[in-house]
Amino acid sequence: MGILMGLATMGLWGVAIFLAAVANKKLENVVVLFWMQIFGFILGIIYLLIKPVPFPLASIFHYLPQLILIALLQIVAYLSFYRGLAKGQVSMVSAIGASWGLLTAILGVIFLNEVLKLNQILAIVLIALGIVLVSVNIKELISNRKLKLLVGVQEGLIAMFSWGVALFFLASLTKEIGWFLPAFLFRLFLLIFLSIFILFSKKKFVPAKTEFPWGLLLLIGFFDMGAFFTFSIGTSGSYASIVAPIGSAYALVTIILAKVFLKDKIKRNQYLGIAGIIAGLIMISL
After folding, report:
1. How far, in Å, CA of 167 to CA of 164, rounded?
2. Which tens digits make up the pLDDT trace of 35-91?
3. DSSP 136
4. pTM for the whole thing?
5. Half-sphere exposure of 38 toward its Cβ, with a 13 Å CA cutoff?
6. Nearest to 6 by CA among 279, 227, 284, 275
7. Exposed, middle or buried: residue 112 (CB in 10 Å: 0-12, 13-18, 19+)?
8. Residue ranges of the alpha helices (H) in the chain?
9. Which DSSP state fits 150?
């Protein structure tokens, strides 16, 4: 079940991230994030109407700080990631951001007493090397002996760390209060924080001078929420150190779509780095 849910998460997030890259070329990233979260939240409400879920208020109140922390980390991760997509190559930023599964797996080992096998330890090394190859301008390093990160790398790394910690907390919550409530409730707090930010920054929820891509944002929200559902279902009954790395291999889906539809140009060392990250993400789940 854990592997199956991980694969479902990978596909859903892969498509969602690609569509978000398209949307970020049309709108500000905070507006994209707000509306995709709205549509994802609506999907959660529809599920509640079809299959009501009991709300244990005492448990929810107890885990409130954790839910708020997840929401804040998700905002940092998404906005950094979207900023990276707007500045850099979709394939490169996606591969770096997708490495959050590495951090989630390590945290699972440290705090949830999950045990990594030898192949999973080797996978961690592969992912780390892959991030270096994807992130660094090798030509600049060889010619000028100067380390220079490529455009979008910094944002991808911030997203990786924020998602890694947030999804570790989400995985631990699913073991306590089930798969649905954590994914649904943290999104509620996320929407509250985003609404406050947009209002105080005097941004517009629906910009008047551009054709608003309602259909695109609806698809992003549904795919994204669906990925959180499958991730939560998987981690509620299986190791986070298995589900997270498989799900974070969504970069493979995003990279293929970016190569086909956005004509991303990828250098040789970046191909090697992306291959290393994807191989590591697959190996860590075996």
Report:
1. 5
2. 999 999 999 899 889 888 777 777 788 889 999 999 999 999 999 988 888 877 777
3. B
4. 0.80
5. 14
6. 227
7. middle
8. 2-23, 29-50, 57-62, 64-87, 90-97, 100-111, 118-135, 138-144, 153-177, 180-200, 214-237, 240-247, 251-257, 268-283
9. P
146 HSE (CA, 13 A, CB side): 5
Rounded distance, CA 32 to CA 75, Å? Answer: 12
3-state SS class at 116: coil
Q: In one letter, which amino acid is 54?
A: P
For tokens 């279902």, the residue is 233
Task: Please give the single-letter amino acid code of residue 232.
Answer: S
Q: What is the per-residue pLDDT across 106-142, written as a single tens digit (0 to 9) for each?
A: 887 788 777 767 877 787 778 777 766 765 656 655 5
Closest CA to 22 of 271, 264, 282, 267: 264
CA distance 197 to 141: 40
Q: Which of 174, 255, 224 is nearest to 2 (CA)?
A: 174
- CA separation for the pair 55, 216 (Å, rounded): 32
DSSP string, 49-106: HHS-----HHHHHHTHHHHHHHHHHHHHHHHHHHHHHHHS-HHHHHHHHTTHHHHHHH
Within its chain, how far is the Cα of 219 from the centroid? 16
Which amino acid appears at position 38 of this protein?
I
Using a CB cutoff of 8 Å and minimum separation of 24, what contacts does 47-55 make? 47/180, 47/229, 48/184, 53/178, 53/180, 53/181, 55/181
d(CA 153, CA 132): 10
Amino acid identity of 39?
Answer: F
DSSP, collapsed to helix, strand or coil, labels residue 27 as: coil
Sign of CA pseudo-dihedral 119, 240, 169, 50 = positive
- The residues with which 136 forms a beta bridge, in sequence order, are 149
- Can you tell me which residue has the tokens 């929420």? 225
Token duo for residue 224: 């994204």
